[in-house]
Amino acid sequence: MSGIVLTLLRHSRSRAALVVLALVPLLLLAHRAPAAHAASGPAWGVLASGCTAADIAANRAAGIGLVEVEAYWDRWLPTSATAENTDYVDDLAARVTACLDAGMRVVLGTGTQYPPSWVRGLPGATLVDQRGNSPATGAVDTVFSAAVRGAQDDYLRRIVAALPVSRLDGIRVGTSTAGEIGFPGPNESGTGFLQSFWAFGADAQQGTGLAAGMPRSPMPGWIPGTRTWNGTAVTAAAAQNWFLWYERSLMYAVKGQADTLRGAGYGGAVHVPAPGKGVLPADLTAATNALLNGTGDRDGSLGRGLYYVDQFPVLAGNVASTVVVDLTGVDDATAVTARRLSPAQDMCRADDASTSTRPSTPVATWSNLRFARAQAARAGLAAVGENPGPPAAQTGGTADSDSEAEQIRRSPGYARGCALAAFFLAFEDVLDDPSSGSDRQDYVDAVTGAS
Fold this sequence. Notes:
The protein is an alpha/beta fold. The protein has a single domain, classed as Alpha-Beta Barrel (TIM Barrel), CATH 3.20.20. The chain is 34% helix and 9% strand. The chain has 15 helices and 10 strands. It has helices spanning 53-62, 73-76, 86-101, 146-162, 202-206, 236-263, 281-289, 301-304, 308-318, 333-339, 352-355, 368-379, 404-417, 428-432, 440-448, and strands at residues 43-46, 66-70, 105-109, 170-172, 228-229, 232-233, 270-274, 323-327, 382-386, 422-425. Strands 1-2-3-4-7-8-9-10 form an 8-stranded parallel beta barrel, surrounded by 4 helices. A two-stranded antiparallel ribbon has the order 5-6. Strand 9 (382-386), helix 13 and strand 10 form a beta-alpha-beta unit. Helix 9 (308-318) packs parallel to helix 12 (368-379). 53% of the residues are buried.
């Protein structure tokens, strides 16, 4: 297994303004033809590489030519918006350059999920849900807060200025504490409530301190599940429009990061990590008919604002940079469940893009990867993927997931079957840890079919 490379597809993108209107039908965007993938199949890589001399040597010996390297916002600017930790910046730049000089392809994670402590004190930094609660995880508002977005934009510009970004294969952007798209997840308020909508700060509701270009709530003050607003009955259509505003706010935030990188001089691809399968069309119908009172929320995707059926086409039509969706559910727990069905529902199929939004298609039984991949294909977006990692590591795996060793064995088949441009194994340090029971040779064997 040698000469493994990633070929990213370059598409021209419309810069038409992304518009969210109150109480109107869904924004219609033309769907592009599904993106083709490299004829040689996926490129094989690893997540969270250190790009040390030892890492580079081990990866090259195994034929792994693609790595993701993570930057850390809190290490870059630990004490203030202007005081760079130059030792950290120089070390990161040296390691990224070392990987590139060794012929490795590099995707950079910006690490905006690791905000410095001083960011938490900025106006509007605290996320607020409909009950007035804030995330117990300490997540900050990188979606609505103008002050936080400004600090984040400054950090992104510093990345472009300090690192060899013209040589990168991609830069990852996200909004959540996992570095993926999404608001905080179920019960992250720490109060026992399974569903929170994180758009109830003054910025999102009243427009006070709202990030530039972001629309405020189409129904200021309305609480999901409430039957009236300003003395008027709330319809299912109004509830759906509110949810579309909520989920598209994430796309505004992603577009903002992509535009900042592009404006700073980065012309390459933007990778958008996307967890799970998101809200299904039938879920949204049930949820909005119940005025978003919690009905129809299978896995917390409503509160997290994940609706790929709409979001991926919005990204494709409104982000000037090349967008590559990173599907983070390769061989997750839903794949385990889906492959036990008769017939199995875990593997992608050629007609998934056209059938996945039909009411008669039982997409609830599909694996997360299969459904999310179909939405990327519908939108004409290239896709890469990654597995959740060791179930005990709290990186996406659960007690129902395959073991890491089994994920290593099965993931290459899913990556090929779902026409992914690349697969990133989570994580490099797993392959270096003798106690994990897996090493690079196991990964090589899985990719080559020797296992």
